[in-house]
Amino acid sequence: MVKKPKISVIVPIYGVEKYLRECLDSILAQTLKDMEIILIDDGSKDACPQIIDEYALKDRRIKVIHKENGGYGQACNVGLSQATGEYVAIVEPDDYIDSDMYADLYAIAEKYNSDIVKSAFYNNFQAKEKTKLTKVKWEDFIPENKSFKIKEYPYFLYYHPSVWSCIYNREFLTKHNIKFIEAPGSGWTDNPFQVQTMCLANKINYTSKAYYYWRILDKYESDALKDYTIPFKRSEEIHQWLKQNKIKDKNILLQLARRELGYIRIVLGMKDIADFEDCKKKIKKLMSYMPEKLFSESKIVRDDEKELYLLIKKDIDLAREKILKKRNKKKFFSLRLNKREVSVTLFGKKWSFN
């Protein structure tokens, strides 16, 4: 019997030739050597296909797959279908990781027999040749050195999915048939994946040590900015899944509602919405999953969240007017709704930074 690697690292790749070598070098530099590296070229039009072919000649652990463009979710699913490791990890191709990331996370997983091990990470802000690192961490309200279920400490569900700061037990993913939703572009497909994995895991472990550098660019093409419906599509899919799996825990639903309220805030802050009447219908549908008592009875919901919730329930047009006015007066959030911006706009004020 062929021994399976400890970790399968999946890298979905599209149009990132500027950063790809740094990413791949950081993976090859891992102190954990017992792993396979699956590079999925999702129909890149730049030099990415040639770069990954070059790297495959350097290291036998690398498996290269070239395919037509199908989006982030589909590329990740191709990687999952090819993975043979005990655990699975995802690295986005314009990011990079510290050399001890997978050795440390695997050691935790082995100690606790974890379904998921999640670490803190760094926001790597880059604008006009300047770089700023800030650490995103949860140890103020999520314990270390013990396994838990998400209903005990649901705070991960409020923040950016950051599915790449985790390793996942592959048998756990297979048992529950967990895959990415497939949609064009990035499509926010990491959101349902995060919810499903976190809600179904019996053993989640967390470490406050940060290893992953999530590059946040000053200028980045946004799928969601072009299509305001994307957040609503992913949220609807999440709620249908919650219903099918009979997940009714109030702590879980509250954190998801807080995150979705942030999505609505961002959409209402967009200057140009192609069909605002349709947008309002989608907002009302999403708000229907947020009963008022979730907010009114909670001690952790901020006052500004409660105020925004009540305002949107009362008058969406007025809510948009106030959000745009505040945006023009003080740039308090970004309007780029993609994987490089959403975490900042939604949660920048609440994350604990070093």
Protein described:
Helix content is 43%, strand content 18%. Strands 1, 2, 3, 4, 5, 6, 7, 8 and 9 form a 9-stranded mixed beta sheet that branches. The longest helix is centred in the last third of the chain and has 19 residues, at 250-268. It is of the alpha/beta class and 354 residues long. It has 2 domains: 7-217, Spore Coat Polysaccharide Biosynthesis Protein SpsA, Chain A (Alpha-Beta Complex); 223-337, no CATH class.
What are the main properties of this structure?
single chain; 354 residues; alpha/beta; Spore Coat Polysaccharide Biosynthesis Protein SpsA, Chain A; 2 domains; 9-stranded mixed beta sheet; 14 helices; 9 strands; 43% helix; 18% strand; globular; disordered C terminus
